[in-house]
Specification:
Elements: H1 10-17, H2 22-53, H3 55-69, H4 78-84, H5 87-91, H6 94-106, E1 113-116, E2 121-122, E3 128-129, E4 134-137, H7 139-142, H8 146-149, H9 189-206, E5 207-211, E6 220-222, E7 226-228, E8 234-238
Antiparallel strand pairs: 1-4, 2-3, 5-8, 6-7
Length: about 240
């Protein structure tokens, strides 16, 4: 007999695993929402913007998505296309993964990160830090430094993340610091990329995106996260092969 009351949401799964304190459950779910919702939405906004600024890369990403999902006929329904997107198909999308990572390098959702020193220590460069000191680093600035990424650091270049066989190559997290590094590496990194790849696959497999004003250069608005300053105004059209049912 099927348990109709069984839930598959995150909170219910935590309750099923252990009878945790309600305050603990509240805090951990709030962290999931805050750490997942805004960064994913922000990263997708910047990703769409960068693809609009580089239509040749948008076309290349879309071609990879269509090939990975093995779509050989006209697409008549977005839901039908979405059903083709699985873990197996997203694993094939190496260029998409590279393009998303390149976007996050230039526009990390968390532009500044800070830590509190628990004890006196000496940083690798010889700088002394005392217990209670706050040390901040800037993934936004580090992602644009030429001495870290080369003379083309300011260019949107997904190919920098691919090896000679076209497979995604992960850089050291101490170089690509958007998801932190070491013991503090973001636990949701892989989950975030999975979400981004699924959403991107459906959107770019079915639609073409263009900026309403192709000459406009967007700026950012800083809070905890790095938001697009103002609306991202784009026009959306059906990709070739997508037809109404």
């Amino acid at each position: 007999m099927v348990d109709v009351l069984k839930k598959e949401d995150i909170l219910s799964r935590f309750v099923q695993v252990n009878d945790n304190d309600p305050k603990y459950l509240r805090d951990i779910i709030l962290n999931f929402i805050l750490a997942g919702k805004d960064p994913i939405a922000i990263s997708m906004s910047w990703f769409i913007y960068m693809l609009c600024k580089h239509p040749e890369i948008q076309d290349k990403v879309a071609k990879e998505i269509i090939e990975a999902t093995n779509v050989n006929e006209e697409i008549t329904d977005v839901a039908d296309f979405a059903a083709r997107v699985s873990e197996g198909t997203t694993d094939k999308m190496q260029y998409l993964h590279a393009a998303l990572t390149e976007t996050i390098r230039l526009y990390p959702a968390l532009p500044v990160d800070s830590k509190v020193c628990f004890s006196d220590d000496v940083l690798p460069d010889g700088c002394n830090v005392n217990k209670g000191d706050v040390v901040a680093y800037m993934p936004y600035a580090m992602g644009r430094m030429k001495f870290i990424w080369g003379d083309d650091a300011l260019e949107f270049k997904p190919e920098r993340w691919l090896d000679q066989d076209g497979c995604f190559h992960q850089e050291s997290p101490f170089k690509f610091t958007a998801f932190q590094a070491g013991p503090r590496t973001c636990l949701g990194r892989d989950f975030a990329f999975r979400q981004l790849k699924i959403i991107s696959s459906v959107l770019l497999g079915c639609f073409v995106f263009k900026l309403n004003n192709e000459n406009k250069v967007l700026s950012y608005r800083t809070s905890i996260n790095i938001h697009v300053d103002g609306p991202l105004q784009v026009s959306v059209s059906r990709r070739s092969g997508f037809q109404n049912p």
